[in-house]
Design brief:
218 residues, alpha+beta, tt1808, chain A, 3-stranded mixed beta sheet, 7 helices
Length: 218
């Protein structure tokens, strides 16, 4: 609805053709920068392409890394056990219409994952995304990424704050994200990853994570 209203506002302007031409020119320049970006990045870099700009990420704090690792361990074990698809983390470059992101954790169901190659470096829009907040990424995680994931129909999006140890679960409902859960306790159940349900504390507590992992392996 927002995009439709914006388009109508532009078309009402007398200089709409000139404005559209200018936007087209800017986007063409951006496409050139994006190609350069693809050619210059390598596996050692944690980097994204957002609205025409190259965003290089600094090293993460231990609590960020720990939350990522603990959740990835559980997700990957569950998905491997039940052959549900591919779980990636840290440097999986996902390609959207305009931008390229490397979310902290991604999941692709079998429909997408069956065509992946061992040497693949660029991946399609995921079915499920997790972002672990940090001071430098929170604005994008809650802003442009949130909007992009929603627009491109990422069915489930988890935002995790490792400082307050709170998780937010957003589910896509009629093209819009709805907050399904925000908590630091209890359990969380994925809508996309069949059968995946864990204690929220297992994302932050190593001992509970190990116990949960043992349960998953039974």
């Amino acid at each position: 609805m927002f995009h439709q209203n914006l388009l109508e506002q532009i078309l009402d302007l007398p200089d709409a053709p000139l404005l559209i031409q200018e936007v087209s020119s800017k986007l063409n320049e951006e496409r050139v920068r994006r190609e350069i970006f693809y050619n210059e990045i390598d596996e050692s870099m944690k980097v994204e392409f957002i609205n025409g700009e190259i965003v290089v990420h600094s090293p993460v704090m231990k609590r960020h890394n720990q939350a990522t690792g603990l959740l990835y361990k559980l997700l990957d074990t569950h998905c491997y056990k039940y052959k549900l698809g591919f779980v990636g983390f840290e440097k999986i470059m996902t390609v959207f219409t305009r931008n390229d992101y490397e979310p902290d954790i991604v999941f692709f169901g079998n429909e997408k994952a069956k065509d992946f190659k061992e040497v693949q470096t660029l991946f399609p829009v995921p079915d499920f995304v997790v972002e672990i907040l940090s001071k430098s990424t929170a604005k994008n995680d809650r802003g442009v990424k949130f909007d992009d994931y929603e627009t491109h129909k990422v069915a489930e999006y988890w935002i995790i704050d490792p400082d307050s140890e709170v998780i937010e679960q957003y589910l896509l409902n009629e093209k819009r994200y709805e907050l399904n859960l925000k908590s630091s306790n209890g359990t969380i159940k994925s809508s996309v990853i069949k059968g995946f349900e864990i204690p929220i504390r297992a994302i932050f507590d190593e001992k509970l994570n190990f116990e949960t992992l043992q349960d998953l392996l039974k």
